[in-house]
Structure prediction request, 379 residues.
Amino acid sequence: MTMLKTYISILRGTALAATLLLAGSALAQTTATGVINGVLVNKSGISLQFDSDPAGVTLGAAGTNAATVNFGNISAFGPLAGGVTRPSVTAANFTVRTIFDVQVVQGGLNSTTYTLTANLAAAAPTGLSYRVDAITLTTVAQTVQTNAAYNTDIAHNLDLVVLTAAPGAGGPAVATPLTTTINFTATAN
Amino acid sequence: MKSTFNFGGTRALLMLSAALCLLTAAASAQSSSGQLTITMNVQSSISLIFQNNPSVGTPGFCPLTNAGTNNVGLDLGTAAFPGSFHTATCVNYQHLTAAFYEVSSAFDVVVTKANSSSPNYRMAAQISTPPPTGVIWLINNVTLTDTGFTQLDAADNFGQPITKTLQVQVRNNVPAQILLETITFLATAN
Prediction:
């Protein structure tokens, strides 16, 4: 009788072990999955930069949208810095010129061209006026170019028209550094 | 029921407004700006040019080559002491003494100023090489040298033609040769 109980107990243990093994086997086949929900917001944009032109003055901070151009010493009859020319001298005024490039890049826009405007940040110093491509600048934005192409350097003439009058008689201050800022805006067409 | 309907309408209006704002933003033209800062230093300056005198072509006023610039030529032709010989009809020829003859021609000098308060200028001239013995180069009767500038005028007016006469005086014993000088004029603002 005791042996029979022992035998039955062994059978029960064996059955339990088999059950546990089967359960373990079922757990090993479980799989795990996951997903990444990628999101990119593609914004449209437009950027403007100034580049040095081979025929003009080498710009300071070229390749940015905040560049500088130094004409150096300018005069009606004296020598000029490299990259500066003097297209005209009259009794009333003389003009000095340099060339700079503007490059505008766009992305995400349904636009093939842009319009470039320019204006003086402040009134021009006495005796001086500024022209971009023959457009005399004021503090009000004026169109310099329409239908300009993207992604390429476009050369522009920058003219300084200087009155020849003496200082105090309508002419500019002499032997004094004069600074003017021109704002440019490129607008996608 | 009424309250629920109103809430739904307000939400719809808000969504519509937001959509319109987005559309408006998308429709507005995009732009980019930049600043170009310019610096320069204006300097006073003056220029000097030679011009033909209005009487050019008449005796005493030979034409300049390259007139209107600061680098001109003045051909006085060929001359000799005997017989008051001279080939150029535009020169003045005269025997100064029994030993010297003179050939002369006049031209204009114009000095212009810009961005200057100077009231006038002074003018000087200098020849480039020592002339042969017996040859004298003069401007308006002032003998020039190659050792330094000789002042011709103390206060000439800007922008006005100043007539100057180049004179070459030659002694009658000077050997035959080409007499050539480069005469530098110097104008200095007062």
Notes: Chain A touches chain B through 65 residues (CB under 8 Å).
